[in-house]
Amino acid sequence: MSKIKPYKDSDLGKKEQVTKMFDTISGDYDGLNRVISFGIDTKWRKKVVKIIKESNPDTILDIATGTGDLAINLAETNATKIVGLDISRGMLDIGKEKVKNKGLDSKIEMVLGDSEKMPFEDNTFDAITVAFGVRNFESLENGLKEILRILKPGGSFVILETSMPDKTPYKQGYNFYTKNILPLIGKAFSKDKNAYKYLCESASVFPYGEALNNILKETGFINVKDLPQTFGVATIYVASK
Question: What single string gives the DSSP state of each residue in 170-227?
Answer without folding.
Answer: HHHHHHHIIIIIHHHHHHHH-S-TTHHHHHHHHHHHS--THHHHHHHHHHT-EEEEEE
